[in-house]
Amino acid sequence: MSIATSLYRSLTRHKLFAALNIGGLALGIAVFLVLYLFVRFETGYDRVLPGWQRVWMVDRSLQFPGNPRVEIPSLPTMLGQMKADYPGTTGARFLQFDAAVQNGTTLVAQTMAQVDPAYFRLFQFPVLEGDPATALARPDGIVITAPVARSYFGKASSIGRTLTVVIDGKAQIYRIGAVLRPLPGNISYTSDLFTALAPDATGQRGKGFRTFLSFPDAIAAARVTRDLPAFVKRHPDPDFPVGMVDLAQTRIVPLASVHLAADNVRTGVTVLGAVGAVALLLAVVNYVNLATARAGLRAREIAMRKVVGATRRALVLQLLGEALVAVTLASLTGLALAEIALPFISAIGGTDLTIAYLGANSILPPLALLVALVSLLAGFHPAFVLSRFQPAGVLAAARTSGGDRAGARLRKVLVVLQFGIAIALMICTAVLVAQIRHVQNADLGFARNGLIMAPSYGVAAVDASQRRELFAAIRTLPGVTAVTTSGIAPTGGSYSISAMHRAGATGEPPMILQATIGDRFFETYGVKLLAGRLFDPQRFPTDETRTGTDADKREHMVVVNRTTARRLGFATPAAAVGQSVSEGERSARIVGVVADMRFATPREPLNAVSYSYRDDGGFSPVLVVRAADTATVLARMEMVWRRIVPNVPFAALTVDQKLYDSFYRQDVQRSRLFTIGAILAALIGCIGLYGLAAFDTARRVQEIGIRKVLGASTGDVLRLLLGQFLRPVALANLIAWPIAWVAMSRWLGGFDDRINLSPLYFIVASALALAIAAATVAGQAWRVARAEPARALRQL
Amino acid sequence: MIALHDVSRRYASDEVETTALADIDLTVDAGEFVAIMGPSGCGKSTLLNVLGTIDRVSGGRYLFEGADIAKAPEAELAKLRRDRLGFVFQSFNLIDELTIAENVALGLAYRSIPAKEKRDRVAAAMDRVAIGHRRDHYPHQLSGGQQQRAAIARAIVGEPKLILADEPTGNLDTENGAQVMDILSELNAGGATIVMVTHSPAHADIAKRTVNMLDGRILSSARRAA
């Protein structure tokens, strides 16, 4: 009988086992495949273009004592200086911003990058038509991507045609010189439109500038890295005051390491990869468990094969062959499941994953490797156990005995392991979901609902008189209850950081974030005043902070938040009111103390902030509106906007949305993927437990018959069986709790605003696991517990 | 002690209905030792299973000490088996995973008896059938005769009023069979009621009454001359 026939009969005769075995394995493989694609996508960032190994990026950051490290842009002059200092160095600069393309009467927002022509030698994008490098040799040349070309010009060639692009309110006409093919989603630095960067790039300071360098190998890069401290001293940043030079750090990092540089991003990818591997492991454990559990049933077949002359080697090969066929079947089913699930996974996980069958990214070679590995892993133990049977003993005895005991112990250990992992995943899911819900609903110190922010209010193309007109018009819109402007805004904005001294205080002065705010800022945000007063320039004209040569000499008024008051050493908010402090060369008087507002990510500690009042809200201010019905007011704001500044695209959204996009979205999406993975892993564990329960109850029909003959009631038998099945699940908590505790403590440690790791999560997850396991085995146990004992005993 | 009136037992499968027992009227008094004989498939074991409440009747009345238990709930039957009945099977039905002592202790597993008393009663039951020296062995390590003695120990450890034995010597050689019959006679002499299915006329002779069956019906019931 060939392997295929043997397997076919074994599958069709034991349909339940076949379904559990192959179904469970297919599910595990599907979870693994989806998460493998995700990890490959994330770790493949910037490795999709040829020559990525030779590209490095200048990475600059600044860290004030007691504050998180912040990324700062590269300097436009840096590339030229590097080329001069390190002969042979090549590279390109990249400056991205939002622009708008004039399409008839409407403006369409697009991302635009100004780059050096050499950029396209470093980043070898696939080209549909034209030559990007020569296209940018002309000052009015532009390179666009295929989707952009299609949206404006349809299917016809767009080379030589023109696009009107509005940058900072000014329209410019560009001629298309090249079209790039659609780009994969995992490229960090790309854009819809590319134009040439002026060689001196004056006026570009402070914007999101990037400098990329090309080195033939890591040794050449290391040579430059060693000299960087000296380089920075030779070419100091003219923006940095002397004291700040030491706070800045300049490094060059390989391009491929940029995407996963942040700890939380890297952890997220690692964890999801681990969930995929764990789901697969659980499925393999199921296969091993069910296969060895059934070993006893196949003992006679194996013994007969030995009697007619099969060697142990031949039997091992046969059983491994069976595993290979089963795993192949499961893998194809898993692949189909993954295909079906991918659109759904992509939608809720915010990813763009596809399965490729051909080409360099084909799934087939890794899948073949997976099949081979899983077959070996899953088939080895059953093959070893089964082929060891001694034929005489097996054929003489009515049933196999003795040897099965060790197998049963192994199965119990594996069930403990499976449920340990499943419970740990359930606890992690509960904590993850609770924390993510917490940060989305936590008190940020201001009423986050009903707030609209319009960052486009502060762009350079909108002048001061237009801003005044916009402000006045929007304030009187129906449905608007309050309006303010400020440089600082939820998720960022413009602000500066400097040390704040309190007269007579000793020790290092705290670094305070200095924000300028316009009229009714605190009132619009709904911030609680803790002591003193808020700004009121009508009653207190000196509240207004003036800029200019002489204005700074005068003491100016500030409102500080509670963290600032505490850092300055005031015992209570009230104690800070009326006190004088100095900020650099200016002196300031604290007129009020307000509650802390969390504008930054929940991962970072609350900032110490000092607010100054300026009538115009300060540098590149953001307009913030409070309204009950945000959707209607947003539409009305856009109408006003188009009337007053028709040449600048209107960009506004609710603060809730902005916070979600910047701080929560990635966590929410990753936690969804994690939750699905965890639920499926638990399901795989249950499939295994169900299979074992089915097997075990079938094997124990006689024993249960005897127990009933001896007077055991249905309840007694049910309790016995459930107790025995659930004991490993209960024991699994011993593994699950410490793992989950360590993992979640570390993860929560990454948040400043976090929930407590309550024992409730552990208890509820464990109780849930027990309940699910009980429900899984109850049917089997109930059936056998209720059977009439005479029937059970007759089966012998 | 027990009385069956017009008892029948039918098994229905998808295609056929088999009548295993029909029109059974049988009374067994306390202290009796009844042997049931008949060819294979005549319904002996079914009758024994019905008497032992491990199989249900399809019709008729089953009086146990005056109470009709033909339609009694499962829990009540379990309690009856636990407190009043003892079973001995041809194929012993010891549990492979348990030691001999643990198998015997199963006879008390569903009663609330202090642990020490349980241990004492298990030891006494094993001594009574001379199997005490094998207490920590597993069933597959024992001979057939020893296994059956262990099974008898399990049946009597609860001191049942009625012992039901289904071909208790069927799997044993002559010598071991004789030992088992001696034990059963002693138990009967000690006051236990015994109903035994057997193929052996010699063993049936040891009983006080022999019931002959054929095709699910009782043909005759003959008391042994004293």
Automatic annotation (TrEMBL), chain B:
GO function terms (MF aspect): ATP binding
Entry keyword Methyltransferase: no
Transmembrane portions of the chain: none
Domain of life from the UniProt record: Bacteria
A Pfam family matched in the record: ABC_tran
SMART domains noted in UniProt: AAA
Residue stretches making up the ABC transporter domain: 2-225
Keyword annotations from UniProtKB, A to Z: ATP-binding, Nucleotide-binding, Transport
Gene3D superfamilies in the record: P-loop containing nucleotide triphosphate hydrolases
Keyword Acetylation: no
Annotated InterPro entries: AAA+_ATPase, ABC_transporter-like_ATP-bd, ABC_transporter-like_CS, ABC_transpr_LolD-like, MacB-like_ATP-bd, P-loop_NTPase
Protein name per its UniProtKB record: ABC transporter ATP-binding protein
Species of provenance: Sphingomonas mollis
